[in-house]
Design brief:
The protein is of the alpha/beta class. It has 13 helices and eleven strands. The strands form three sheets. The protein has a seven-stranded mixed beta sheet with strand order 1-2-9-6-5-3-4, sandwiched between helices. A two-stranded antiparallel ribbon has the order 7-8. Bound molecules: nicotinamide-adenine-dinucleotide (NAD), ligand LNCXM5UN and zinc ion (ZN).
């Protein structure tokens, strides 16, 4: 069992990572409860596979459970599902000191975290992440949100969980595609701040995907620790936290362009976005010409999407993609900011990127699609 502590004063919390964690969830969660009753919100896939086991683990400690099951997929991060969650919590008479548990991937975590933040101006909230992406990234750090037709995660709040409980055994039921999408965020950590981690992934990525429990725990812990170090320096993204957005300026525009649909999962967009950010860095002379090919080679070795050509269906023009990037939350005074790199493990935030270079890169990439 591994623990990563998030030192945030009176909002400090622990992330507990291990195998067999779910079976002991009642024992772990009970100390947080003012009364032995929790509201669990999940999605249809997670409910079918793991909700009974989770309920039993809570029941053995005398904790009763009310649960709400939502449709699976990115389109669940919507106003209508936010309303559904909040109204359900109110109907169930959840008090401010009661606890809401997000039991699922990043979609459930982001939506339920936001619902918890605004219900009675903030009910206590615990994350039990069930995807690789949620265990390494979305359950930690307090970004919560839903999507708008105008762009990704544009409606939300910073709201930290009280606890995060990550059982890597749950990753065993993910589809290979969902597992690899989460791996996109794992690779991001190596690229943004730790060449040793990237090298470790080059060696251990295949074992991780094949189900090696030790490797999974190590990767989740490494990623969470990196995220915690950044988030505790800059909780609300005034500076360094934007590093965690490596690949996302491109990735979020691609998600919007593909309608937040099955055509492109978030982590897939992040992987393609990282490859584009590093290519852009090389074109601007910031990093070596070898870095983009090394990153692409690793993503390809893992069987991931790497290029715009890997996205099925029609893509909009380079100009339209650049326009979608204009809704990015890192925009200041109308100017886009990018996360670029001086080499693998050395990312930085900059507004000093000529839009014509971005356009040229996107055009070259789109030409390869045609
Ligand atoms: N808040 C943050 O800091 C942050 C960070 C990264 C990503 N995100 C958000 O996270 C979302 C993506 O999260 P995701 O990749 O977890 O997607 P997801 O929540 O849609 O889960 C992916 C799929 O896996 C299924 N699933 C979940 N757990 C399962 C399990 N154990 N076994 C079998 N199937 C399971 C889900 O039902 C879904 O179909 C995006 O909306 C993204 O914006 C947020
Ligand atoms: O926690 C962060 O900060 C991140 O940027 C992590 C990202 O992986 C995540 O996708 C996040 O939701 C993106 O943030 P956004 O502010 O660009 O919506
Ligand atoms: Zn992300």
């Amino acid at each position: 069992m591994e623990i990563v502590h998030v030192p945030m004063g009176d909002r400090a919390y622990d992330i507990r990572i291990g195998s067999g964690v779910l079976a002991r969830a009642g024992y772990r969660i009970k100390p947080f409860l003012k009364r032995p009753r929790v509201a669990v919100i999940t999605d249809e896939n997670v409910a079918a596979l793991h909700l009974e086991a989770f309920k039993e683990a809570l029941a053995v400690e005398g904790v009763s459970v009310i649960s709400l099951t939502l449709p699976a997929g990115e389109s669940t991060k919507s106003w209508s599902n936010l309303e559904r969650c909040v109204e359900w919590l109110l109907e169930q008479r959840m008090e401010r000191s009661d606890t809401v548990i997000a039991f699922g991937g990043g979609v459930i975590g982001d939506l339920v975290g936001f619902a918890a933040a605004i219900t009675r101006r903030g009910v206590r909230f615990i994350q039990v992440p069930t995807t690789l992406l949620a265990q390494v990234d979305s359950s930690v750090g307090g970004k919560t949100a839903i999507n708008s037709p105008a762009g990704k995660n544009l409606i939300g709040a910073f709201y930290q969980p009280a606890y995060v409980l990550a059982d890597v055994d749950l990753l065993g039921t993910l589809t290979p595609r969902d597992f690899l999408a989460g791996y996109g965020e794992v690779v991001k950590y190596g690229l943004l701040g730790d060449l040793d981690f990237f090298e470790w992934l080059e060696k251990n990525g295949p074992a991780l995907a094949a189900g090696d429990v030790g490797a999974r725990i190590a990767a989740v812990k490494w990623s969470c620790q990196m995220k915690v170090d950044i988030v505790t320096r800059d909780e609300t993204e005034r500076g360094d936290r934007a590093l965690l957005n490596l690949g996302h300026t491109f990735g979020h525009a691609l998600e919007a362009a593909t309608g937040y649909s099955d055509r492109l999962l978030h982590g897939e967009g992040v992987a393609i976005g990282c490859a584009l950010a590093i290519e852009l860095s090389a074109r601007l002379g910031l990093c070596s010409q070898e870095d983009p090919s090394r990153v692409r080679a690793h993503l390809r070795q893992m069987g991931m999407k790497v290029d715009l050509a890997d996205i099925p269906g029609e893509m909009p023009s380079a100009e339209a993609l650049l326009d979608l990037m204009g809704q990015d939350k890192k925009v200041v005074a109308g100017q886009l900011r990018f996360i670029l790199t001086r080499g693998i493990g050395h990312a930085f935030v900059t507004a000093d990127v000529p839009p014509e270079e971005v356009l040229r890169l996107l055009k070259d990439e789109l030409d390869r699609v045609a």
